[in-house]
Amino acid sequence: MKKTIFPYVVLAPMMLLLFVFLVLPILGSFVIALFKYNPLNETGNTFIGFENFRRLAADELFNISFVNTLIYVFIMVGINLVITLLFAQLLTSLSSNKWRSLFRVLLFMPCVAPLAAVSVIWSKGIFPVKGGLLNKLLSYVGVAPINWLGNPSTLMPALLILSLWADIGYNIILFISGLQSIPLDYLDAAQIDGAGPIRRFFSITFPLLGRTFSYVTAMTLISQFQAFAQFAIVAPNGGIGRRGYVLSTYIYDMGFRNKDMGYASTVSLVLFFIILIVTLVQQRLNRVDWGY
Amino acid sequence: MKKFLHLSLVLILCFSLLPVSAAEPVTIKFWTHINEAWNASYEELVAEFEQANPDIKVDYQRFPYGEFEAKIQTSLMAGNAAADVYEVWGGWVLDFASQGVLSETPAKFAAELEDDAYAPVLGALKHEGKYYGAPVEFNIEYGGMVVNKKLYDEAGMTYPTTWAQLIEDAKKVAVKDGEVMKMRGFGFSTPDTLTSNFLALILQSGGQYLKEDGSVDFTIPEATAAMKQLVAYTADDHINNLDTLTNQDTQDDHMMVALDESFGCVRGPWVLSDLEQSYGLTMGVDFEYISQPPFFEGVEQKFAAETGWSLCVPKNTAAEEAAWRFVEFLNQPDVLLRHNIACAQVPPRRSVANDPDYIAGAPYMLPLLDKLQYAQFIGPFNTDILKDYLKQTYMNLVIGDHSDEAIQDACVKLTEDLAQAMKIY
């Protein structure tokens, strides 16, 4: 009896925490989305059914933020996975432990800094058209100053650069861990059979990295769909041409600027379902049904 | 036993005659946003209030501006308000008051304010005929200009006294090299000043953007003409660029003046203490604050002003009486006078604005004081939304097609979008 109860007892506090701070708010969002809701208003919140959802269809700002979010996420995740896997492979192939550790620390350090602080530094010190570090570096190779945040065509790339810099460290560590768990026997056998490094990577390493890759992709997708700090700080109100307006900042504006929590909940539910569907599809595509 | 009983009785009698310890003072929490000069002045006034009111202690806390509105909102949503007195931006008060979370201004105090305060400073504090706060300043982002004295002296130029001269000079001195604005001739594009100048240009052209129901109409000819004029200054004349709108957290027009990258800009007087304290500049040596000329000669210099920073008391505070005593103290004319001078603010009350001591303490405000009579309340809506949509419209026109047709279409769309997005109270 004690044996069967013990795991549940140990897990109960965490389950309760998850239920109260994760499940209940999500269920609450479902309910709030059906109301014209202002949390400051104790008695005047009216039930409006699916009116908030109907409003989405004609909402230009929602459409803009939706498209921007999809563009940002798919480019960000795609580049992120390529870069982090490349770095992880390079670091794993380093023979010196000292250099491997040094690069691991350097690449992981941006992840430690709070993203809000990082965003402030990038918007004040790196992106400014005059005196910004990025333009200064580009000037050494003869590139004229770019107005990163003042040009609609460069605003999203600027946000992508910032996000990549701040985020790749974590995925590199995960991929290194995945790479180091692959038994060397397979790679040795492939080498004996005459496979070159690229062939070995695509035919042996990458397939065997399946589970790690699937996990990293899912977590990156989920986190980037919810990216907020860099957009709110670097491109307030979406920046020029609203090119930096994403669903998370739109939800914040609707909730805290327009005080329309009901509609904000509706948009957040849309985001929830987008993340859910994309993650399910991704998990299905990257399904790994073997082990080693 | 008898002796013990007698001794006990004597001791009890003695203790009962001891003076009753004074009741614990009530502590009220006072929240404001971070602004060096303002915070320093509030700290002095808090100490003064506590000395005059030993039964009340004030726990003064301040927060970064960027998160302040959200912080106030989330604290009001909680059952027990986190603060007893909030310094609230006027536009936010409309939202809070309409939800019934703010305490009504005591009747006598409200009557005093109605009698003495300028109309715009009370506009957003009024909901359904009642007031829900007390103003601490007349927020004005029009009428005064910060000019870089050193640059003017080096260029051998005199300060402009007409709008035509201002623009002419600005065109002459502005330098743009590709994407880099090396020197701004005149800055007016922050969300605050773009809005105030746009609305002022409409009003001085004889138009009225504010409809009777409180909504806005920018399809009127005066509005499209105003938009065309302001867009042309940036897009065609290049007297400034959009950096102060796109990098608004990193660059402000007065910062460009401080960094010797701008000859001048229109800005409220609150920047003066910022220039002195944050940039170490000296008025009269490094910069001056002068009168912004009207757009047209010989017209009343009408402009729209929003209700600025005000003090509000939440409804669910446990110390409502003490909170209002603190607010009324801060709003006493002699206290307000000192506070407004220290913070480089225009007083919300006529009695203070016309007080010779105020003018003596803040002579640089003279360019603004004469104009206050021409101010109208901006409108009964959350001005953050107006500023956001106007900013986006303006930026899109500057970087894109700004033909007459495009401007007309943009103004129609702006009006329609604001009708959807803005709640009219």
Largest sheet of chain A: 2 strands, antiparallel
Could you tell me the mean pLDDT of chain A? 91
Number of strands of chain B: 14
Q: Beta-strand percentage of chain A?
A: under 5%
Kindly provide the name of the CATH class of chain A: Mainly Alpha
Approximately how much helix is present in the residues of chain B? 40-55%
Features:
heterodimer; A: 292 residues; mainly alpha; MetI-like fold; two-stranded antiparallel ribbon; B: 425 residues; alpha/beta; D-Maltodextrin-Binding Protein, domain 2; 2 domains; 20 helices; 14 strands; elongated
Description of the structure:
The complex is a heterodimer of chains A (292) and B (425). By secondary structure, chain A is mainly α. Chain A has one domain: MetI-like fold (Orthogonal Bundle). Chain A is built from 13 helices and two strands, in the order αββαααααααααααα. Chain A has helices at residues 2-32, 51-57, 60-92, 97-112, 115-126, 133-139, 152-180, 184-192, 197-208, 210-225, 229-234, 247-257, 261-285, and strands at residues 35-36, 46-47. A two-stranded antiparallel ribbon of chain A has the order 1-2. In chain A, helix 3 (60-92) runs parallel beside helix 7 and helix 7 packs antiparallel against helix 10 (210-225). The longest helix of chain A is centred in the N-terminal third of the chain and has 33 residues, at 60-92. Chain A is globular. Chain B folds into two domains: 26-139 and 306-367, Periplasmic binding protein-like II (D-Maltodextrin-Binding Protein, domain 2, 3-Layer(aba) Sandwich), CATH 3.40.190; 144-304 and 381-421, D-Maltodextrin-Binding Protein, domain 2, CATH 3.40.190.10. Chain B has helices at 2-17, 36-52, 65-77, 90-98, 107-116, 119-123, 149-155, 163-173, 191-204, 221-235, 243-246, 253-258, 270-279, 320-330, 333-342, 350-353, 356-361, 366-369, 383-399, 404-421; strands at 26-33, 56-63, 85-89, 126-127, 130-131, 134-135, 144-148, 175-177, 180-183, 264-266, 287-291, 303-305, 309-312, 375-377. Chain B has 20 helices and 14 strands. In chain B, strand 8 (175-177) and strand 9 form a beta hairpin. Chain B is α/β, with parallel strands linked by helices. The interface between A and B is large, with 34 and 37 residues.
